[in-house]
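We modelled the chain as a single entity of 51 amino acids. Its sequence is:
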Amino acid sequence: MIILGLILLIIGFVAAIPILWTLGLILVVIGIALELLGALGHAIGGRRHYY
């Protein structure tokens, strides 16, 4: 999710498409949050690991 967000951020910045920039930023933030919760040992959606 983080990688997809970064790709959308780059495409949105290069092509000057604000919706891609916004979606990329949201995906990066959600991906980082899920990664941190998974690293802390919290089960997310019934799974111990997010990957």
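As a brief sanity check on the tokenised model: Residues 18-39 form the longest helix (22 residues). The two ends are 9 Å apart (CA to CA).
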